[in-house]
Every structure is written in structure tokens, then in C-alpha cells.
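Appendix C reproduces, verbatim, an entry submitted by the partner laboratory led by Prof. M.T., so that reviewers can inspect both the input and the predicted structure.
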Amino acid sequence: MREETATTNLVRHLLANNPINLPAENTALLTGADAADLVGSQDGADLFLCIPQTGEFLFAHSRYLCRNSEFAALFDALEASAETKMKVIVVAPPFIQQFRLILRQIYSNDPEHCEGRLAPAEFVPILLNAQHFKVDHLIDQCFTYFEKNWSSIIYQETFSFGVINQETLVELVEVVETEANKLLTFLEWVKDVTDLTRRGEIRALVKHHVHPGSVPDGEWVNLMEKYPASFEYCFDNSRLVQIAKDYLPNEERCDEWN
């Protein structure tokens, strides 16, 4: 109850300092950059987005947020405060700094609006936010971008086991060409793992999605030298021994998993 009162008081304060002018019901919706620029504006706003991680409140517009299925599903269950006539939606984006970009994409209702905004350092935050809020066309753009720029993205700090879940990692690996590059992607993903109990699931994942017989000998050597710890998480001892034997003269390469 105390928390609800504090929220109501804050909303009242925001309204007092930022008067709202609701648009007429028949006002045409904007698209593209014009719509995106309304993000955070009090003009025509009829709700607040509350970000508990930072305590931030953003003015928002249900007519534009309804363009996103995730937000649209929330509105029917909301009740406006009798005192403020404003609704409050609590949101918890995986990456707060990129949340406004996701909102701009939703508001714009234009799949091309985010073109040019993706960059290796921003890739994982944007993808995970897009997945969280189910912005499907932005997710598609992210995978297309990864296919062309994976070799820069996998070296970013956010490209890690603790940030990217297994399902998303597998989808990303699917768009990477060559088995050596798929293996490299896995090795970078697990490079910071310290929990030995996760080795079994990681090894099963690698076994299912990397075909070792298609990785050139030279690539194996380079990767084993660069990622000794990651190899221990991706392969069991018997497999590491088999890989080592593959480099001996007159030894036949193992094309399938044992």
C-alpha cells in the first residue's frame, strides 16, 4: 500500500510539472521518425512506463505501444488511477540503456527505421531487448546483421554464456558459415564460464551443432592453443585425446562424434 501511494504521488508530481494534452480520438497515427520522436514526450501521453531498476518514469502512448503485441496484451488488464487518470506499466528490459531504441522501433511501425543503428557493441543488448518485447522485425534484422558481422560481435563483452541463453546462441550459430567459425563462436561464448557443473550441457550443445570432421587441422590447433579453458567446457577428455591423435601422421581423422 505504501508503495502504491509513493507511485501515485510521483505520478501526480509528474503531471503537475508536465501537463498532458490528449489527442482527439480520430487523430491519425504517425509513422517512422515522426512517431519515434514521441517516445518520452508528454504530448498526447496517456500512461507511464516505470523502470524499477532505475526508478525512471517515461511518458508513453498506448495508441503507439499497441503496435507491439507484448504491450497490447497488457492494456486490457490495466486500470487507470482514479486520482491521476493515468496508467502505469512496470517494465524490466534486459538492457536499460537500449530500451528507448526499442520503444522508438515500436512507435515507428517501420521495419527499416532501425537500419544503421546496429553495431557490434550494441548488438546483444538490442537483440535481447527485442526478444524480450517480441519486436519480431527487429529480431530478424539482428540475425541478418549477425550473419555479416559475427566475427566482430563474438568478441564483445556481452557475448557470453551469462548473458545469451542457449536457445539464442544456437539460433546465432545457425547463420554462421563453416564449422570452424561455428566452433569459434561457441568457444567465445563459454570463455568466462567458471561453473564446472555446466560442462555437460555445454558439451551436448557443441556436439549437436559442430561437426568436427569439417574443421581443418590448422584451425583445430589454433583454437586449442587460444582457448584451452573453453575446450575443456566444450569437449570431454576422450574427445580431446581423439582430436590430438587426428594430427599425428597417417592417422585417420574422426568425422563423427564417438
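Residues 1-24, 248-258 have pLDDT under 50 and may be disordered. Additional entries are available on request from the coordinating office.
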